């Protein structure tokens, strides 16, 4: 799901690319695990990645709303929603790990998809800036 926002401009495009890249990375990692390891590992990677990607998208939406409206009016609501979402995520991860529904290593790999997606996007943007600086010289 790609969310377009007219107020964010170029930063919004970068965030949308990060979100899309996160889902593509999750798909690639899940398929690789499916063919290389077991169905349980692939399911674990998918569940971890889906949890973290949905959380990232909700955080993006909430921060966009926070920054586009008056900060004072919605700040308390933002923090309440943020901590409520954090508690739900912690409870969900606890249940998944406690009842051994997932492979723990696969879950951790899936949870790292947003981190990897952000790192790849930042590296790509840094490369663009570097090449523009070399062309300017």
Order of helices and strands: HHHHH
- The value of Rg in angstroms is 18 Å
What's the count of strands? 0
pLDDT averaged residue by residue: 86
What would you call the structural class?
Answer: mainly alpha
Explain how this protein is built.
This protein is an all-alpha fold. The chain has one domain. The chain has five helices and no strands. The chain has helices at 10-36, 39-68, 71-98, 104-111, 113-136. Helix 1 (10-36) runs antiparallel to helix 2 (39-68), helix 2 (39-68) runs antiparallel to helix 3 and helix 2 packs parallel to helix 4. The longest helix is centred in the middle third of the chain and has 30 residues, at 39-68. The chain is flat, with a radius of gyration of 18 Å. The protein starts with 9 loop residues before the first helix and ends with a helix. Residues 1-8 have low confidence and may be disordered.
Quick structural gist:
This protein is mostly helical and 137 residues long. It has one domain.
Descriptive key words:
disordered N terminus, 5 helices, 85% helix, mainly alpha, flat
Task: Give me the secondary-structure topology.
Blueprint: H1 10-36, H2 39-68, H3 71-98, H4 104-111, H5 113-136
């Amino acid at each position: 799901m790609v969310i377009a926002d007219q107020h964010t401009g170029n930063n919004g495009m970068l965030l949308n690319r990060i979100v899309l890249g996160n889902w593509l990375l999750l798909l690639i990692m899940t398929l690789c695990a499916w063919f290389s390891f077991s169905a349980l590992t692939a399911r674990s990677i998918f569940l971890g990645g889906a949890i973290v990607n949905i959380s990232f998208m909700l955080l993006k939406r909430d921060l966009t709303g926070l920054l586009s409206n008056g900060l004072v009016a919605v700040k308390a609501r933002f923090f309440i929603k943020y901590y409520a979402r954090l508690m739900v995520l912690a409870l969900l991860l606890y249940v998944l790990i406690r009842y051994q529904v997932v492979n723990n290593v696969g879950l951790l790999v899936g949870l790292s998809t947003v981190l990897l997606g952000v790192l790849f996007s930042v590296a790509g943007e840094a490369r663009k800036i570097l090449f523009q600086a070399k062309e300017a010289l």
